[in-house]
């Protein structure tokens, strides 16, 4: 039982990332009908927003520290971040320590702008083009963004630690009555799961309970009729593209302490997130979320050593095997709607 609970917990953080990326992908496809292969790059840009803010906050100046001397007894020069010299060592150090959560505020306007610029500058020209054209142009854009990030940040992963308060692990086993240290789970992975839950609930509440969201859902069902009512549905869909970009970016921001950002992380998640969308059902927001968590947990179970001993490499292909089985039995996915991508 403890092994089962541990693997469920291990699958939640990756499943959260899959669900958030797939949610943004489904929002874009459901509103604009665009297959956006650059969505993984938005996840990567969000992660590098956290890296950028961390680097900005740690910009330092050299000052003489009379308490430290070299072997000749001369005072040494030490680097002190400007943020500490402005706000004091205690408060300034806390700002640096909490750079990842603070990067949420830093990333939101950036991701909204990137999403808006992407939609207005490129995507709008491909609304009525075949899906193959959309895939090619957005995949090309993803490669360009990837190479830009590689040029400015390098090819190596950049460690971006979680705040000191969330380092370490929580003993779930002791809380549930198991032996101590039987089920250990990092605090930040718990934070990421809760954060994903808040974002997902926020998106669904926005679409379900606001006038803007109701119009968007109506436009997803019948765009022409909503347009005939005098509503500028295109402008609302552009805003939704920006919101979808923000969701992917925030998923990347909070994932940085779990997986150090690198220039190809967007591609790593892109293919898997598309599999999640297809398994959940094209155009189905609940399906994307449910499939994200389901596949994340299955991947965690497949990574258990005794399973890999029986079927070597199963952890690398389990998601694709599940996708094949589901699509053979339910061609529209778990919650797919009739008529979506069915010509």
From TrEMBL:
Q: List the InterPro entries.
A: ABC_transp_permease (IPR001851), BCAA_transport_permease (IPR052157)
Q: What is this protein called?
A: Branched-chain amino acid ABC transporter permease
State the signal peptide span: none
Keyword list (alphabetical) reads:
Amino-acid transport, Cell membrane, Membrane, Transmembrane, Transmembrane helix, Transport
Q: Tell me, what is an example of a GO biological process annotation in this record? A: amino acid transport
What organism, scientifically named, is this protein from?
Answer: Actibacterium pelagium
Q: Which family does it belong to?
A: Belongs to the binding-protein-dependent transport system permease family. LivHM subfamily.
Which residue ranges does UniProt annotate as crossing the membrane? 15-35, 42-60, 95-114, 191-216, 237-258, 270-298, 310-329
Q: How does it sit in the membrane?
A: Multi-pass membrane protein
Q: Which GO terms describe its molecular function?
A: transmembrane transporter activity
Q: Which GO terms describe its cellular component?
A: plasma membrane
The domain of life is Bacteria
- Protein location: Cell membrane
Q: Does the keyword Transport apply?
A: yes
Keyword DNA damage belongs to the record: no
């Amino acid at each position: 039982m403890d092994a089962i609970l541990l693997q469920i917990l291990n699958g939640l953080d990756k499943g959260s990332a899959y669900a958030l990326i797939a949610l943004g992908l489904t929002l874009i496809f459901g509103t604009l009908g665009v297959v956006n292969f650059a969505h993984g790059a938005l996840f990567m840009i969000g992660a590098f927003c956290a890296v950028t803010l961390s680097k900005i906050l740690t910009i330092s100046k050299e000052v003489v520290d009379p308490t430290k001397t070299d072997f000749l007894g001369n005072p040494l020069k030490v680097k002190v971040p400007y943020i500490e010299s402005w706000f004091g060592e205690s408060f300034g150090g806390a700002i640096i320590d909490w750079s990842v959560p603070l990067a949420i505020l830093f990333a939101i306007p950036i991701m909204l702008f990137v999403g808006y610029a992407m939609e207005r500058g490129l995507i709008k020209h491909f609304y009525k083009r075949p899906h193959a054209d959309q895939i090619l142009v957005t995949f090309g854009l993803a490669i360009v963004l990837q190479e830009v990030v590689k040029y400015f940040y390098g090819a190596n992963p950049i460690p971006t630690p979680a705040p000191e308060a969330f380092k370490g692990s929580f003993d779930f086993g002791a809380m549930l009555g198991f032996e101590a240290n039987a089920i250990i789970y990092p605090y930040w992975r718990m934070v990421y799961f809760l954060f994903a839950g808040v974002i997902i609930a926020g998106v669904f509440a926005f679409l379900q309970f606001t006038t803007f969201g109701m119009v968007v859902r109506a436009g997803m069902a019948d765009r022409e009729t909503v347009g005939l009512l005098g509503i500028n549905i295109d402008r609302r869909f552009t805003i939704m593209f920006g919101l979808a970009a923000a969701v992917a970016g925030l998923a990347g921001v909070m994932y940085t302490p779990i997986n150090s950002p690198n220039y190809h992380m967007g591609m790593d998640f892109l293919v898997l997130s598309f599999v999640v969308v297809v398994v959940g059902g094209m155009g189905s927001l609940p399906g994307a979320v449910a499939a994200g968590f389901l596949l994340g947990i299955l991947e965690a179970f497949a990574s258990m050593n005794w399973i890999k001993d029986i079927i070597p490499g199963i952890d690398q292909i389990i998601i694709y095997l599940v996708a094949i089985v589901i699509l053979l039995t339910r061609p529209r996915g778990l919650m797919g709607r009739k008529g979506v991508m069915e010509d």
